[in-house]
Amino acid sequence: MQIIKSIDSLRQALAPLAKEGKRIGLVPTMGALHEGHGALIKASVSECDVTVVSVFLNPIQFGKNEDLDKYPKRLEADAKLAESIGADFVFAPSVAEMYPDGDPMTLVRDEQLEGMYCGAYRPGHFRGVLTVVSKLFLISGANDAFFGEKDYQQVFLIERMVKDLNFNIKIHRVKIVREESGLARSSRNEYLTEEERAQALGIYNGLKAAKAAYEAGERSVLKIRDIVVKSIVAARGVVQYVEVASQKTLQKCNGALGEEKAVILAAAFFGKTRLIDNMELN
Ligand code: AMP
DSSP class of residue 178? Predict the structure, then answer.
């Protein structure tokens, strides 16, 4: 496995492989890899001939008061993990390599959902994500790209971007990987104290209880949201949002749920750490 830091070198390494007709899979990450990322890499290795894992802490998707500076960084360990799963390349460019002229002038934006859910609390976040993901698609020329459902709004927006802008790439969704306790794996879990880690289960437990209520016939959006909110609050978390949205459009559901499949989206703080999670109601 090779670690590549420049765009030109990655293109040079991939061009002959693409020419031979090899299927190239891309797994975009911000590093501090864990089993959640591992599942994406595994999926790429099994579906594609060549797997590229990008490790890039993208500054333009972070707000001024967010955790860009304290985000965990460990490229060597990341490369080892990626290699152990079968990745062929780790692409780890610097900020100057990706944004040689400073913040880009051209941005990719979705105008409908960028201000909803996570976007409402992280202004500029999703345009930063869509812009860097577009760049990674164009740099790698990948045939396939793998994203986790952990970031539900993100994978939804990427799928729409690919459709809206005719990117020639297949997007694969990978299910959320959880710890044994149920806590969704996240690089940000490392910020949690032992106590907060136990409290953070309030999100998953709430989502699970809401899904159980749905399966038992509950259709009131208000009641479903309330189950999740109460579970987070009881665990001493601070709710940022809990919403029920259509899986197909990601627009908010109100009133009573009908036939359309929905998903519960939630974000909450445990101590200073902001965690997100979600659960589909199928
Ligand atoms: P990140 O490094 O947090 O930007 O995540 C990179 C990719 O890994 C994104 O597509 C995430 O959705 C995915 N991912 C992160 N955590 C998990 C998880 N627990 N389960 C599945 N996918 C995940």
Answer: B
**Closest ligand 1 atom to 149 CA:** 12
Retrieve residue 23's tokens: 């299927």
- Residue whose CB lies within 8 A of the most ligand 1 atoms, among 27, 29, 126, for a mutation test: 29
Instruction: Give me the number of domains the chain comprises.
Output: 2
Q: What is the pTM of this model?
A: 0.98
Whether 135 and 191 share a structural domain = no
**Are 154 and 199 in the same domain?**
no
Strands 273-281 vs 262-270: parallel, antiparallel or unpaired:
antiparallel
* Structural domain boundaries, residue 258: 187-281
203, 161: one domain: no
Instruction: Encode pLDDT of 10-38 as tens digits.
Output: 999 999 999 999 999 999 999 999 999 99
Checking DSSP bridges between strand 89-91 and strand 50-55, what pairing results, if any?
parallel
125 is annotated as an active-site residue: no
Question: What CATH number is associated with residue 60?
Answer: 3.40.50.620
Dist. CA 226–CA 228, nearest whole Å: 5
- 155 and 30, same structural domain? yes
Residues with CB under 6 A from ligand 1: 29-30, 36-37, 39-40, 147-148, 150-151, 174, 176-177, 184-187
Q: What's the pLDDT tens digit per position in 89-142? A: 999 999 999 999 999 999 999 999 999 999 999 999 999 999 999 999 999 999
